[in-house]
Amino acid sequence: MSQHQHEIIGPASSYYISQRLRLHYVDWGNESAPPLLLIHGNKDHARSWDWVARELRDEYHVIAPDLRGHGDSAWAIGGHYMINEFVLDIAQLVDTLGLHPLTIVAHSLGGAVALQYAAIYPERVSNLVAIEGLGPPPKMLEAHRAAPPWKRIEDWIGQVKNLSARQPRRYPDIDAAAQRMQEENSFLSPEQAHHLTVHGVARNEDGTFSWKFDNYTRAFYPESWKPDERRQMWERISCPTLLVRGSESWASDPEEDGRAKAFSRGEFATIEGAGHWVHHDRLSEFLDRVRKFLGH
Predict the structure, then answer these.
(1) CATH of domain 3-137+225-294
(2) Hey, how many other C-beta atoms are within 10 angstroms of the C-beta on 280?
(3) How far apart are CA 212 and CA 200, in angstroms?
(4) CA atoms within 13 A on the CB side of 45
(5) How confident is the model over 116-139, as pLDDT tens digits?
(6) Residue boundaries of the structural domains of the chain
(7) CA–CA separation, 79 vs 10, rounded Å?
(8) Beta bridge pairs of residue 128
(9) What is the rounded CA–CA span in Å between residue 220 and residue 112?
(10) What phi, psi does 43 have (nearest 5°)?
């Protein structure tokens, strides 16, 4: 990379269209390098990857999208956010930019989206790292699936009605919003929380700040997480796959709960002292494990 490129602190913003929505992504440059897609989780945004992107931009052409309903991407009309709609958006981005074959590193909801994409287009993904991206733990899903279908749909309708009644919280300043960010993830340093907040809020007309994400993304859709279908999808993934979890997270261990068996080329890593946001909580250890996996 040239000295001039190193002087660029942040990425360039761009947009593309998927399902009539104007969706945002950031591009860290280095177009001649192999493509690397960074996909964030729910209630998050593309700039949450900045620390990872800065470390890997010399080796990869790093692209980080804002999922629909997040960051600077459009909100879905009607507020409907099924996992396959996120997958559609990623497929559209990859096609639009001609990124495949590519490496994907993804977190939580983004990890689930990445695994789904790699199952649908196994020839397009060369390596995949999913941080706690297997979806809800099996025990939670068992309880969910035990309910009759009409009850699951009724529950979903109730969720949406409750979300429609919620008003986005307004914070008087960035510091107040950053404090809320640290309440959500106690592992964050004040500097991390401030950075995530600056890129995660929008200023309201009255001068207050609100989070950019659409509250409707919180809804748990009754048909999104069928365990048998998920396993069939995961079995189609042909690339080396690293599943990462934090030792202090609520996420279930895929080796203990049996989900790991679906991955024919799977590797598994538990990062000690990390919660759900492994790449924030233990960045150095996470990068060491990812670089080892990717052969750097």
Answers:
(1) 3.40.50.1820
(2) 23
(3) 6
(4) 23
(5) 999 999 999 999 999 999 988 888
(6) 3-137+225-294
(7) 31
(8) 104, 241
(9) 14
(10) 65, 20
